[in-house]
Protein backbone atom coordinates (compact mmCIF):
# COMPACT_ATOMS: atom_id res chain seq x y z
CA UNK A 1 0.00 0.00 0.00
CA UNK A 2 1.18 3.49 -0.76
CA UNK A 3 1.40 6.53 1.48
CA UNK A 4 -0.08 9.63 0.00
CA UNK A 5 -0.90 13.05 1.21
CA UNK A 6 -4.17 13.32 -0.68
CA UNK A 7 -6.91 10.93 -1.77
CA UNK A 8 -6.06 8.03 -4.11
CA UNK A 9 -8.46 9.24 -6.75
CA UNK A 10 -9.35 12.88 -7.11
CA UNK A 11 -11.73 13.98 -9.82
CA UNK A 12 -12.19 17.72 -10.01
CA UNK A 13 -14.74 19.62 -12.10
CA UNK A 14 -14.54 16.92 -14.76
CA UNK A 15 -16.40 17.53 -18.01
CA UNK A 16 -16.45 14.92 -20.78
CA UNK A 17 -18.20 15.38 -24.11
CA UNK A 18 -19.07 13.06 -26.98
CA UNK A 19 -19.16 15.57 -29.81
CA UNK A 20 -21.83 18.10 -28.86
CA UNK A 21 -23.33 15.92 -26.10
CA UNK A 22 -22.08 16.48 -22.57
CA UNK A 23 -21.78 13.14 -20.78
CA UNK A 24 -20.24 14.46 -17.57
CA UNK A 25 -20.77 18.01 -16.33
CA UNK A 26 -18.31 19.33 -13.71
CA UNK A 27 -18.17 16.12 -11.72
CA UNK A 28 -16.02 16.04 -8.59
CA UNK A 29 -15.37 13.06 -6.36
CA UNK A 30 -12.63 11.49 -4.25
CA UNK A 31 -11.66 8.03 -3.11
CA UNK A 32 -9.36 7.88 -0.10
CA UNK A 33 -6.79 5.23 0.75
CA UNK A 34 -8.54 1.99 1.66
CA UNK A 35 -11.96 3.54 1.24
CA UNK A 36 -15.07 1.86 -0.18
CA UNK A 37 -16.97 4.40 -2.27
CA UNK A 38 -20.08 3.90 -4.36
CA UNK A 39 -21.30 5.80 -7.38
CA UNK A 40 -24.95 5.12 -8.04
CA UNK A 41 -27.24 6.38 -10.73
CA UNK A 42 -29.57 5.29 -13.49
CA UNK A 43 -28.68 4.09 -16.97
CA UNK A 44 -27.17 6.82 -19.09
CA UNK A 45 -26.15 8.98 -16.13
CA UNK A 46 -22.52 8.91 -17.29
CA UNK A 47 -21.17 6.30 -14.88
CA UNK A 48 -19.28 4.31 -17.50
CA UNK A 49 -18.00 7.52 -19.08
CA UNK A 50 -16.49 8.41 -15.71
CA UNK A 51 -14.85 4.99 -15.42
CA UNK A 52 -13.41 5.14 -18.93
CA UNK A 53 -12.00 8.60 -18.17
CA UNK A 54 -10.45 7.32 -14.94
CA UNK A 55 -8.63 4.57 -16.78
CA UNK A 56 -7.49 6.89 -19.52
CA UNK A 57 -9.60 5.52 -22.36
CA UNK A 58 -11.53 8.80 -22.73
CA UNK A 59 -9.98 12.25 -22.66
CA UNK A 60 -11.72 14.95 -20.61
CA UNK A 61 -12.87 18.21 -22.21
CA UNK A 62 -12.01 20.05 -19.00
CA UNK A 63 -11.33 19.43 -15.35
CA UNK A 64 -8.83 16.97 -13.98
CA UNK A 65 -8.41 13.39 -12.90
CA UNK A 66 -5.62 12.67 -10.43
CA UNK A 67 -4.80 9.09 -9.52
CA UNK A 68 -2.16 8.61 -6.83
CA UNK A 69 -1.12 4.99 -6.88
CA UNK A 70 -2.32 2.22 -9.16
CA UNK A 71 -5.83 2.00 -10.47
CA UNK A 72 -7.31 -1.14 -11.99
CA UNK A 73 -10.57 -1.28 -13.84
CA UNK A 74 -13.13 -4.06 -13.85
CA UNK A 75 -15.19 -3.08 -16.88
CA UNK A 76 -18.94 -3.35 -17.32
CA UNK A 77 -19.98 -6.70 -18.73
CA UNK A 78 -16.83 -8.38 -17.41
CA UNK A 79 -15.04 -8.13 -20.78
CA UNK A 80 -12.88 -11.18 -20.24
CA UNK A 81 -10.71 -12.42 -23.10
CA UNK A 82 -13.09 -15.17 -24.15
CA UNK A 83 -10.63 -17.00 -26.40
CA UNK A 84 -8.00 -17.28 -23.69
CA UNK A 85 -7.74 -19.45 -20.61
CA UNK A 86 -8.41 -18.07 -17.14
CA UNK A 87 -4.68 -18.29 -16.43
CA UNK A 88 -3.84 -16.28 -19.56
CA UNK A 89 -6.53 -13.71 -18.68
CA UNK A 90 -4.90 -13.24 -15.29
CA UNK A 91 -1.37 -13.03 -16.71
CA UNK A 92 -2.48 -10.32 -19.13
CA UNK A 93 -3.85 -8.39 -16.16
CA UNK A 94 -0.25 -7.89 -15.07
CA UNK A 95 0.78 -6.50 -18.48
CA UNK A 96 1.10 -2.90 -17.33
CA UNK A 97 3.52 -3.71 -14.50
CA UNK A 98 5.14 -6.80 -16.01
CA UNK A 99 3.69 -9.08 -13.33
CA UNK A 100 3.39 -12.74 -14.35
CA UNK A 101 2.95 -14.57 -11.06
CA UNK A 102 -0.72 -15.44 -10.70
CA UNK A 103 -0.39 -17.29 -7.38
CA UNK A 104 -1.42 -14.28 -5.28
CA UNK A 105 -4.68 -13.94 -7.19
CA UNK A 106 -5.54 -17.63 -6.78
CA UNK A 107 -4.86 -17.21 -3.07
CA UNK A 108 -7.41 -14.40 -2.87
CA UNK A 109 -9.93 -15.96 -5.26
CA UNK A 110 -9.45 -19.72 -4.69
CA UNK A 111 -12.51 -20.57 -6.80
CA UNK A 112 -10.47 -19.62 -9.88
CA UNK A 113 -7.84 -22.28 -9.18
CA UNK A 114 -9.79 -25.18 -10.61
CA UNK A 115 -10.88 -23.04 -13.59
CA UNK A 116 -7.38 -21.96 -14.54
CA UNK A 117 -7.16 -24.07 -17.71
CA UNK A 118 -10.74 -23.35 -18.82
CA UNK A 119 -11.49 -20.96 -21.62
CA UNK A 120 -12.85 -17.76 -20.05
CA UNK A 121 -15.55 -17.31 -22.69
CA UNK A 122 -17.20 -20.58 -21.65
CA UNK A 123 -17.53 -19.71 -17.94
CA UNK A 124 -20.69 -18.54 -16.18
CA UNK A 125 -21.30 -14.83 -15.64
CA UNK A 126 -20.27 -15.01 -11.99
CA UNK A 127 -17.09 -16.90 -12.80
CA UNK A 128 -16.27 -14.38 -15.53
CA UNK A 129 -16.81 -11.53 -13.07
CA UNK A 130 -14.36 -13.23 -10.72
CA UNK A 131 -11.86 -13.57 -13.60
CA UNK A 132 -12.31 -9.86 -14.35
CA UNK A 133 -11.67 -8.96 -10.70
CA UNK A 134 -8.67 -11.31 -10.59
CA UNK A 135 -7.27 -9.83 -13.80
CA UNK A 136 -7.56 -6.36 -12.28
CA UNK A 137 -5.84 -7.55 -9.09
CA UNK A 138 -2.84 -8.74 -11.13
CA UNK A 139 -1.74 -5.13 -11.55
CA UNK A 140 -1.44 -4.86 -7.72
CA UNK A 141 -3.91 -1.98 -7.56
CA UNK A 142 -4.35 0.51 -4.74
CA UNK A 143 -7.86 1.14 -5.99
CA UNK A 144 -10.25 -1.09 -7.91
CA UNK A 145 -12.84 0.63 -10.06
CA UNK A 146 -15.67 -1.82 -10.62
CA UNK A 147 -18.27 -0.98 -13.23
CA UNK A 148 -21.59 -2.77 -12.55
CA UNK A 149 -20.54 -5.59 -10.27
CA UNK A 150 -23.99 -7.16 -10.01
CA UNK A 151 -25.38 -6.68 -13.52
CA UNK A 152 -26.88 -9.92 -14.82
CA UNK A 153 -25.68 -12.02 -11.88
CA UNK A 154 -27.70 -14.12 -9.44
CA UNK A 155 -27.98 -12.74 -5.86
CA UNK A 156 -25.92 -15.55 -4.33
CA UNK A 157 -23.11 -14.96 -6.82
CA UNK A 158 -23.19 -11.24 -6.08
CA UNK A 159 -23.07 -11.92 -2.34
CA UNK A 160 -19.97 -14.07 -2.86
CA UNK A 161 -18.26 -11.36 -4.90
CA UNK A 162 -19.12 -8.75 -2.27
CA UNK A 163 -17.59 -10.96 0.41
CA UNK A 164 -14.38 -11.17 -1.62
CA UNK A 165 -14.30 -7.39 -2.04
CA UNK A 166 -14.75 -6.89 1.72
CA UNK A 167 -11.84 -9.28 2.35
CA UNK A 168 -9.64 -7.54 -0.20
CA UNK A 169 -10.41 -4.25 1.41
CA UNK A 170 -9.92 -5.45 4.98
CA UNK A 171 -6.82 -7.58 4.40
CA UNK A 172 -4.98 -5.76 1.68
CA UNK A 173 -6.27 -2.25 2.03
CA UNK A 174 -7.47 -2.13 -1.57
CA UNK A 175 -9.81 0.83 -2.05
CA UNK A 176 -12.88 0.32 -4.20
CA UNK A 177 -14.93 2.67 -6.32
CA UNK A 178 -18.07 0.68 -7.05
CA UNK A 179 -20.31 1.85 -9.86
CA UNK A 180 -23.74 0.30 -9.44
CA UNK A 181 -27.32 0.52 -10.59
CA UNK A 182 -28.25 -1.58 -7.59
CA UNK A 183 -28.13 1.20 -5.01
CA UNK A 184 -29.04 -1.02 -2.09
CA UNK A 185 -26.07 -3.28 -2.75
CA UNK A 186 -23.75 -0.31 -3.25
CA UNK A 187 -24.82 1.52 -0.09
CA UNK A 188 -24.61 -1.70 1.89
CA UNK A 189 -21.01 -2.42 0.84
CA UNK A 190 -19.61 1.10 0.77
CA UNK A 191 -19.18 3.68 3.48
CA UNK A 192 -19.60 6.70 1.22
CA UNK A 193 -21.51 7.30 -1.99
CA UNK A 194 -22.24 9.73 -4.77
CA UNK A 195 -25.41 9.91 -6.84
CA UNK A 196 -24.90 10.70 -10.51
CA UNK A 197 -27.83 11.78 -12.67
CA UNK A 198 -27.65 13.10 -16.22
CA UNK A 199 -23.93 13.74 -15.93
CA UNK A 200 -24.05 15.61 -12.62
CA UNK A 201 -23.47 14.66 -9.00
CA UNK A 202 -26.84 15.37 -7.39
CA UNK A 203 -26.11 13.99 -3.94
CA UNK A 204 -23.18 12.77 -1.87
CA UNK A 205 -22.57 11.68 1.68
CA UNK A 206 -22.16 8.64 3.88
CA UNK A 207 -24.14 5.61 2.85
CA UNK A 208 -26.30 5.96 5.92
CA UNK A 209 -27.12 9.59 5.11
CA UNK A 210 -27.97 8.79 1.54
CA UNK A 211 -30.05 5.75 2.40
CA UNK A 212 -32.05 7.96 4.75
CA UNK A 213 -32.48 10.84 2.31
CA UNK A 214 -35.77 10.96 0.44
CA UNK A 215 -34.03 11.62 -2.89
CA UNK A 216 -32.18 8.33 -2.83
CA UNK A 217 -34.68 6.16 -1.02
CA UNK A 218 -37.53 7.16 -3.35
CA UNK A 219 -35.60 6.94 -6.61
CA UNK A 220 -33.23 4.06 -5.94
CA UNK A 221 -34.27 2.02 -2.96
CA UNK A 222 -38.07 2.19 -3.02
CA UNK A 223 -38.92 -0.03 -5.91
CA UNK A 224 -35.58 -1.67 -6.43
CA UNK A 225 -35.51 -5.36 -5.75
CA UNK A 226 -32.10 -6.62 -4.73
CA UNK A 227 -31.34 -9.08 -7.45
CA UNK A 228 -29.50 -9.21 -10.67
CA UNK A 229 -32.42 -9.82 -13.05
CA UNK B 1 1.14 -42.66 -62.95
CA UNK B 2 2.05 -43.24 -59.32
CA UNK B 3 5.44 -41.55 -59.64
CA UNK B 4 3.79 -38.49 -61.16
CA UNK B 5 1.31 -38.30 -58.30
CA UNK B 6 3.97 -38.01 -55.58
CA UNK B 7 5.70 -35.30 -57.58
CA UNK B 8 2.49 -33.34 -58.11
CA UNK B 9 1.53 -33.60 -54.44
CA UNK B 10 4.90 -32.33 -53.20
CA UNK B 11 4.95 -29.54 -55.75
CA UNK B 12 1.42 -28.66 -54.67
CA UNK B 13 2.37 -28.74 -50.99
CA UNK B 14 5.23 -26.36 -51.73
CA UNK B 15 3.02 -23.90 -53.60
CA UNK B 16 0.37 -24.35 -50.91
CA UNK B 17 2.91 -23.36 -48.26
CA UNK B 18 3.31 -20.06 -50.11
CA UNK B 19 -0.46 -19.52 -50.12
CA UNK B 20 -0.60 -20.45 -46.45
CA UNK B 21 2.14 -17.95 -45.58
CA UNK B 22 0.34 -15.17 -47.42
CA UNK B 23 -2.91 -16.26 -45.76
CA UNK B 24 -1.36 -16.39 -42.29
CA UNK B 25 -0.10 -12.84 -42.80
CA UNK B 26 -3.69 -11.81 -43.50
CA UNK B 27 -4.75 -13.68 -40.36
CA UNK B 28 -2.06 -12.07 -38.20
CA UNK B 29 -3.23 -8.62 -39.24
CA UNK B 30 -6.97 -9.34 -39.23
CA UNK B 31 -6.97 -10.94 -35.78
CA UNK B 32 -5.49 -7.88 -34.15
CA UNK B 33 -6.88 -5.04 -36.25
CA UNK B 34 -10.00 -6.46 -38.03
CA UNK B 35 -8.45 -5.07 -41.21
CA UNK B 36 -8.34 -7.27 -44.32
CA UNK B 37 -4.98 -6.23 -45.72
CA UNK B 38 -5.22 -6.08 -49.50
CA UNK B 39 -1.51 -5.23 -49.68
CA UNK B 40 -0.65 -8.73 -48.39
CA UNK B 41 0.28 -10.07 -51.86
CA UNK B 42 2.34 -6.95 -52.39
CA UNK B 43 4.53 -7.93 -49.45
CA UNK B 44 5.38 -11.15 -51.29
CA UNK B 45 6.21 -9.31 -54.50
CA UNK B 46 8.38 -6.72 -52.76
CA UNK B 47 10.07 -9.46 -50.73
CA UNK B 48 10.95 -11.38 -53.88
CA UNK B 49 12.17 -8.26 -55.69
CA UNK B 50 14.28 -7.17 -52.70
CA UNK B 51 15.82 -10.64 -52.47
CA UNK B 52 16.64 -10.66 -56.19
CA UNK B 53 18.46 -7.34 -55.82
CA UNK B 54 20.23 -8.30 -52.60
CA UNK B 55 21.40 -11.58 -54.14
CA UNK B 56 23.53 -9.65 -56.61
CA UNK B 57 25.73 -8.52 -53.71
CA UNK B 58 25.04 -10.99 -50.91
CA UNK B 59 25.11 -14.78 -50.70
CA UNK B 60 22.09 -17.07 -50.33
CA UNK B 61 21.01 -17.45 -46.73
CA UNK B 62 21.72 -13.82 -45.95
CA UNK B 63 19.96 -11.99 -48.76
CA UNK B 64 16.65 -13.80 -48.25
CA UNK B 65 16.27 -13.14 -44.48
CA UNK B 66 17.33 -9.53 -45.06
CA UNK B 67 14.60 -9.15 -47.68
CA UNK B 68 12.06 -10.57 -45.22
CA UNK B 69 13.20 -8.09 -42.55
CA UNK B 70 13.04 -5.21 -45.00
CA UNK B 71 9.46 -6.08 -45.90
CA UNK B 72 8.56 -6.33 -42.21
CA UNK B 73 9.45 -2.62 -42.16
CA UNK B 74 7.34 -2.09 -45.27
CA UNK B 75 4.52 -3.82 -43.40
CA UNK B 76 5.01 -1.46 -40.49
CA UNK B 77 4.82 1.47 -42.90
CA UNK B 78 1.62 0.14 -44.47
CA UNK B 79 0.26 -0.27 -40.94
CA UNK B 80 1.08 3.35 -40.09
CA UNK B 81 -0.74 4.61 -43.17
CA UNK B 82 -3.70 2.23 -42.74
CA UNK B 83 -4.38 2.34 -38.99
CA UNK B 84 -2.00 4.98 -37.67
CA UNK B 85 -4.63 7.67 -37.41
CA UNK B 86 -6.72 7.08 -34.27
CA UNK B 87 -10.34 6.35 -35.02
CA UNK B 88 -9.77 4.83 -38.46
CA UNK B 89 -12.40 2.14 -39.04
CA UNK B 90 -11.29 -1.28 -40.33
CA UNK B 91 -13.35 -0.63 -43.47
CA UNK B 92 -11.52 2.61 -44.20
CA UNK B 93 -8.18 0.93 -43.47
CA UNK B 94 -9.08 -1.87 -45.92
CA UNK B 95 -9.54 0.68 -48.70
CA UNK B 96 -6.25 2.32 -47.73
CA UNK B 97 -4.42 -1.02 -48.08
CA UNK B 98 -6.07 -1.56 -51.49
CA UNK B 99 -4.82 1.86 -52.56
CA UNK B 100 -1.35 1.11 -51.27
CA UNK B 101 -1.29 -2.20 -53.16
CA UNK B 102 -2.02 -0.39 -56.42
CA UNK B 103 0.48 2.34 -55.60
CA UNK B 104 3.04 -0.42 -54.98
CA UNK B 105 2.69 -1.54 -58.64
CA UNK B 106 4.10 1.82 -59.71
CA UNK B 107 6.93 1.63 -57.20
CA UNK B 108 7.86 -1.95 -58.13
CA UNK B 109 7.79 -1.22 -61.88
CA UNK B 110 9.84 1.93 -61.32
CA UNK B 111 12.49 0.17 -59.21
CA UNK B 112 12.59 -3.36 -60.64
CA UNK B 113 10.93 -3.01 -64.05
CA UNK B 114 7.95 -4.90 -65.43
CA UNK B 115 9.77 -8.07 -66.52
CA UNK B 116 9.43 -11.34 -64.57
CA UNK B 117 12.19 -11.90 -62.07
CA UNK B 118 13.57 -15.02 -60.55
CA UNK B 119 16.63 -16.21 -58.71
CA UNK B 120 18.18 -19.57 -58.05
CA UNK B 121 16.94 -21.60 -55.14
CA UNK B 122 18.06 -25.03 -54.02
CA UNK B 123 19.40 -26.63 -57.21
CA UNK B 124 18.58 -30.06 -58.58
CA UNK B 125 15.81 -32.53 -58.09
CA UNK B 126 15.19 -35.41 -55.75
CA UNK B 127 13.25 -38.60 -56.04
CA UNK B 128 10.41 -39.01 -53.60
CA UNK B 129 8.35 -42.21 -53.81
CA UNK B 130 9.57 -42.70 -57.38
CA UNK B 131 8.49 -39.18 -58.33
CA UNK B 132 10.90 -36.45 -59.37
CA UNK B 133 10.54 -33.14 -57.51
CA UNK B 134 12.56 -29.95 -57.66
CA UNK B 135 14.57 -29.93 -54.43
CA UNK B 136 13.59 -26.36 -53.73
CA UNK B 137 9.99 -27.39 -52.97
CA UNK B 138 11.32 -29.39 -50.02
CA UNK B 139 13.03 -26.25 -48.71
CA UNK B 140 9.73 -24.35 -49.02
CA UNK B 141 7.97 -27.01 -46.97
CA UNK B 142 10.90 -27.32 -44.59
CA UNK B 143 10.81 -23.59 -43.79
CA UNK B 144 7.05 -23.16 -43.67
CA UNK B 145 6.30 -25.92 -41.18
CA UNK B 146 8.62 -24.57 -38.43
CA UNK B 147 7.38 -21.04 -39.13
CA UNK B 148 3.81 -22.14 -38.41
CA UNK B 149 4.92 -24.07 -35.36
CA UNK B 150 6.82 -20.99 -34.18
CA UNK B 151 3.75 -18.81 -34.70
CA UNK B 152 1.62 -21.20 -32.64
CA UNK B 153 4.20 -21.02 -29.83
CA UNK B 154 4.48 -17.26 -30.12
CA UNK B 155 0.73 -16.53 -30.04
CA UNK B 156 -0.08 -19.11 -27.38
CA UNK B 157 2.89 -19.07 -25.05
CA UNK B 158 4.57 -15.67 -24.95
CA UNK B 159 3.39 -12.49 -23.22
CA UNK B 160 3.59 -10.50 -26.43
CA UNK B 161 1.71 -13.19 -28.36
CA UNK B 162 -0.96 -13.34 -25.66
CA UNK B 163 -1.28 -9.55 -25.77
CA UNK B 164 -1.79 -9.72 -29.55
CA UNK B 165 -4.41 -12.41 -29.05
CA UNK B 166 -6.03 -10.28 -26.33
CA UNK B 167 -6.39 -7.38 -28.78
CA UNK B 168 -8.07 -9.76 -31.19
CA UNK B 169 -10.32 -11.24 -28.51
CA UNK B 170 -11.49 -8.03 -26.86
CA UNK B 171 -9.89 -4.73 -27.92
CA UNK B 172 -11.76 -2.73 -25.26
CA UNK B 173 -10.60 -5.00 -22.43
CA UNK B 174 -7.07 -4.91 -23.87
CA UNK B 175 -7.07 -1.12 -23.52
CA UNK B 176 -8.54 -1.40 -20.02
CA UNK B 177 -5.56 -3.47 -18.84
CA UNK B 178 -3.10 -1.11 -20.47
CA UNK B 179 -2.25 -2.81 -23.76
CA UNK B 180 -1.57 -0.27 -26.51
CA UNK B 181 -3.92 -1.71 -29.13
CA UNK B 182 -2.68 0.57 -31.90
CA UNK B 183 0.94 -0.42 -31.31
CA UNK B 184 -0.08 -4.09 -31.33
CA UNK B 185 -1.83 -3.47 -34.65
CA UNK B 186 1.37 -2.04 -36.09
CA UNK B 187 3.30 -5.05 -34.82
CA UNK B 188 0.75 -7.29 -36.53
CA UNK B 189 1.31 -5.43 -39.79
CA UNK B 190 5.08 -5.96 -39.43
CA UNK B 191 4.51 -9.70 -38.81
CA UNK B 192 2.16 -9.78 -41.81
CA UNK B 193 4.83 -8.11 -43.92
CA UNK B 194 7.45 -10.67 -42.91
CA UNK B 195 5.13 -13.63 -43.59
CA UNK B 196 4.13 -12.25 -46.99
CA UNK B 197 7.75 -11.60 -47.92
CA UNK B 198 8.71 -15.11 -46.82
CA UNK B 199 6.15 -16.51 -49.26
CA UNK B 200 7.56 -14.40 -52.08
CA UNK B 201 11.18 -15.23 -51.29
CA UNK B 202 10.45 -18.97 -51.04
CA UNK B 203 8.32 -19.25 -54.17
CA UNK B 204 10.32 -17.10 -56.58
CA UNK B 205 12.98 -19.72 -57.47
CA UNK B 206 10.24 -22.09 -58.67
CA UNK B 207 7.70 -19.57 -59.93
CA UNK B 208 8.83 -16.36 -61.57
CA UNK B 209 7.42 -13.25 -60.01
CA UNK B 210 6.24 -10.03 -61.63
CA UNK B 211 4.91 -6.78 -60.21
CA UNK B 212 1.33 -8.10 -60.46
CA UNK B 213 1.95 -11.59 -59.05
CA UNK B 214 0.29 -10.35 -55.88
CA UNK B 215 -3.16 -11.01 -57.36
CA UNK B 216 -2.73 -14.79 -57.54
CA UNK B 217 -1.12 -14.86 -54.11
CA UNK B 218 -3.74 -12.74 -52.39
CA UNK B 219 -6.66 -14.58 -54.01
CA UNK B 220 -5.30 -17.94 -52.90
CA UNK B 221 -4.01 -16.64 -49.58
CA UNK B 222 -7.37 -15.05 -48.83
CA UNK B 223 -9.20 -18.25 -49.76
CA UNK B 224 -6.95 -20.19 -47.38
CA UNK B 225 -7.37 -17.63 -44.59
CA UNK B 226 -11.12 -17.26 -44.95
CA UNK B 227 -11.50 -21.01 -44.47
CA UNK B 228 -10.41 -20.39 -40.89
CA UNK B 229 -12.61 -17.32 -40.52
CA UNK B 230 -9.51 -15.12 -41.02
CA UNK B 231 -8.53 -15.92 -37.44
CA UNK B 232 -7.03 -19.42 -37.34
CA UNK B 233 -3.46 -19.91 -38.61
CA UNK B 234 -3.63 -23.73 -38.44
CA UNK B 235 -6.75 -23.90 -40.61
CA UNK B 236 -5.12 -21.39 -42.95
CA UNK B 237 -2.18 -23.75 -43.38
CA UNK B 238 -4.54 -26.63 -44.15
CA UNK B 239 -6.47 -24.44 -46.59
CA UNK B 240 -3.31 -23.28 -48.34
CA UNK B 241 -2.01 -26.84 -48.73
CA UNK B 242 -5.38 -28.04 -50.05
CA UNK B 243 -5.40 -25.24 -52.63
CA UNK B 244 -1.81 -25.88 -53.66
CA UNK B 245 -2.23 -29.64 -54.06
CA UNK B 246 -5.52 -29.28 -55.94
CA UNK B 247 -3.97 -26.82 -58.35
CA UNK B 248 -0.95 -29.04 -58.94
CA UNK B 249 -3.16 -32.06 -59.59
CA UNK B 250 -5.45 -30.13 -61.95
CA UNK B 251 -2.45 -28.77 -63.81
CA UNK B 252 -0.77 -32.17 -63.87
CA UNK B 253 -3.62 -34.36 -64.97
CA UNK B 254 -5.89 -31.79 -66.61
CA UNK B 255 -5.57 -28.28 -67.85
CA UNK B 256 -3.25 -25.80 -66.16
CA UNK B 257 -5.34 -22.92 -67.51
CA UNK B 258 -8.17 -23.79 -65.12
CA UNK B 259 -6.16 -24.75 -62.03
CA UNK B 260 -6.99 -21.64 -59.98
CA UNK B 261 -10.71 -21.69 -60.80
CA UNK B 262 -11.06 -25.36 -59.93
CA UNK B 263 -9.11 -25.00 -56.69
CA UNK B 264 -11.13 -21.98 -55.60
CA UNK B 265 -14.34 -23.79 -56.56
CA UNK B 266 -13.31 -26.68 -54.34
CA UNK B 267 -12.57 -24.22 -51.52
CA UNK B 268 -16.05 -22.74 -51.90
CA UNK B 269 -17.53 -26.23 -51.72
CA UNK B 270 -15.53 -27.00 -48.55
CA UNK B 271 -16.71 -23.77 -46.93
CA UNK B 272 -20.36 -24.37 -47.85
CA UNK B 273 -20.03 -27.91 -46.52
CA UNK B 274 -18.54 -26.67 -43.24
CA UNK B 275 -21.13 -23.93 -42.87
CA UNK B 276 -23.91 -26.46 -43.36
CA UNK B 277 -22.49 -28.78 -40.70
CA UNK B 278 -22.41 -26.30 -37.85
CA UNK B 279 -24.06 -22.99 -37.11
CA UNK B 280 -21.85 -19.94 -37.60
CA UNK B 281 -22.57 -18.75 -34.06
CA UNK B 282 -20.59 -21.67 -32.69
CA UNK B 283 -17.46 -20.83 -34.64
CA UNK B 284 -14.82 -19.67 -32.25
CA UNK B 285 -11.38 -18.44 -33.16
CA UNK B 286 -8.52 -20.15 -31.40
Automatic annotation (TrEMBL), chain B:
Write out the GO cellular component annotations: plasma membrane
Single GO biological process annotation from the record: amino acid transport
- What positions belong to coiled-coil segments? none
Q: Which Pfam families match?
A: BPD_transp_2 (PF02653)
What parts of the sequence cross the membrane?
6-30, 42-60, 66-85, 92-113, 133-155, 184-203
Matches recorded under CDD domains = TM_PBP1_LivH_like
Statement: the UniProt record of this protein carries the keyword Membrane: yes
Keywords, alphabetical: Amino-acid transport, Cell membrane, Membrane, Transmembrane, Transmembrane helix, Transport
Q: Could you say which residues form the signal peptide?
A: none
> What membrane topology is annotated for this entry?
Multi-pass membrane protein
Which Gene Ontology molecular-function terms are recorded? transmembrane transporter activity
Major localization listed first in the record, in broad terms: membrane
Note whether Amino-acid biosynthesis occurs among the keywords: no
Protein's cellular compartments: Cell membrane
* Family per record: Belongs to the binding-protein-dependent transport system permease family. LivHM subfamily.
What is the name listed in the Swiss-Prot or TrEMBL entry for this protein?
Answer: Branched-chain amino acid ABC transporter permease
Natural source organism: Actinophytocola xanthii
Amino acid sequence: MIRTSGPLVEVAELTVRYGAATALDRVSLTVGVGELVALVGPNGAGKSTLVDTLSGILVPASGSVTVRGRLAHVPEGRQVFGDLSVEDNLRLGGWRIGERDTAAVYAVLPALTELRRRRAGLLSGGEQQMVAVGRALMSRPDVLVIDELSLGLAPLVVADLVRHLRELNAWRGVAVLLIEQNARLALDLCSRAYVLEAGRIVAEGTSAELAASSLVSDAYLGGVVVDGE
Amino acid sequence: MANELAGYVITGLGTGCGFALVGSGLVAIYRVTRVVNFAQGTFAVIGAMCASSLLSVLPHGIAEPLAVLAVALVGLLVGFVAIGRPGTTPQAALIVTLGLAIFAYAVVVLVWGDQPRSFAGVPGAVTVLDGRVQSHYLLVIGVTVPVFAGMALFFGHTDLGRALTACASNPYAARVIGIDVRRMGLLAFAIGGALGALAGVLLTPVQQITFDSDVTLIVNGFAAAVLGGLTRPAVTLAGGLLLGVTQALVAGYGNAAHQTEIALGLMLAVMIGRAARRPAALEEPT
